[in-house]
Specification:
185 residues, Methylamine Dehydrogenase, Chain H, alpha+beta, single chain, globular, 46% strand
Length: 185
C-alpha cells in the first residue's frame, strides 16, 4: 500500500510539473486582461475600447500592450477588431498572436520582444502556399513553439480552390523569417 501511494504521489507531481511547462494560451478580450511571460519580466496586457476616442487611440476595438515589469513601461504590440489568442515562447523572446480578424480569415503574428517588431507569419507561408490562396476562407494559427525560435503553424480553409477544405502544417523559423511545409502534423 505504501509503495502504491508513493507512486500515486509521484505521478500527481509529474502531471503538475508537465502542466506548468505547457504553454498558456489566452484569448482576448477576456475576464483576465493579461498574460505574464515565462521569465516573469514582461506582461502582455489587453485594453478594450470603451468609446470612439479609445478606438482612435488604440487603433481598433482592442489592443495588446507589452509591459516591462521592472519599469512599468508599455509599448503597443497589436490592435485588433474582434478577438485574438496569444501565448509566449518558452524562452520569453516571442509572443504568438492569432488574430481572428474576420469570419473568413485569421492571421498569425509573432512579436519579437527584443526588437519590438511584429512579424506577419502568414506572409512567409503564403510564399510557399500557392494553390490555397484562391480560397476565400483561410486561417493561419500558431499552435506551439519548437526549439526556442521555431513556431508550428496550422493553415486551414476552404473556398473556390478547395470546396471540401484543406489543412496544411508549417514551421516558421524566426531567425530566418522563413516557413517550411511539413509533410504531416
Amino acid at each position: 500500500m505504501g509503495h502504491a501511494f508513493n507512486l500515486y504521489l509521484l505521478s500527481v507531481a509529474l502531471v503538475c510539473c508537465l502542466a506548468d511547462a505547457a504553454e498558456t494560451v489566452r484569448m482576448f478580450p477576456s475576464e483576465s486582461p493579461s498574460l505574464t511571460s515565462p521569465d516573469t519580466k514582461s506582461v502582455l496586457v489587453n485594453v478594450d475600447a470603451e468609446n470612439d476616442a479609445d478606438v482612435a487611440r488604440l487603433g481598433d476595438n482592442h489592443a495588446l500592450f507589452l509591459r516591462d515589469v521592472k519599469t512599468s513601461k508599455e509599448s503597443k504590440v497589436h490592435s485588433y477588431p474582434r478577438h485574438v489568442t496569444a501565448f509566449w515562447s518558452p524562452n520569453s523572446r516571442f509572443v504568438t498572436i492569432n488574430d481572428f480578424e474576420a469570419s473568413n480569415r485569421a492571421t498569425c503574428y509573432v512579436y519579437a520582444v527584443s526588437d519590438g517588431k511584429l512579424i506577419n507569419v502568414a506572409d512567409s507561408i503564403l510564399k510557399v502556399l500557392e494553390s490555397e490562396q484562391k480560397n476565400h476562407h483561410i486561417y493561419f494559427e500558431g499552435t506551439a513553439w519548437k526549439e526556442g525560435s521555431r513556431l508550428k503553424v496550422k493553415v486551414t480553409g476552404y473556398g473556390e480552390q478547395n470546396r471540401a477544405g484543406f489543412e496544411r502544417w508549417f514551421v516558421y523559423d524566426t531567425a530566418k523569417n522563413q516557413s517550411v511545409s511539413l509533410p504531416t502534423k
